[in-house]
Amino acid sequence: MNSDKKIFLFDMDGTLTPPRERVQGDMVRALRDLSSIGRIGILTGSDFDYVWEQMEFAFGMGGVPVDRVDILPCNGTKKYAASASRRFELVHDVNMQQEIGAENYNTILRHCAGWQWQIMTKFQEIPYTGTFLQYRGSLLNWCPIGRSASAAERKAWVDEDNKSKIRDYYSGLLTEMMSLFSIEATAALGGSTSIDIYPAGWDKTYGLRHYKDSEVYFTGDKCEIGGNDWHIYEELKETGRAFKVENTSDTLKIIEDLISSC
Ligand SMILES: [Mg+2]
Question: Is CATH 2.60.40.350 the classification given to domain 6-94+203-261?
Answer without folding.
Answer: no
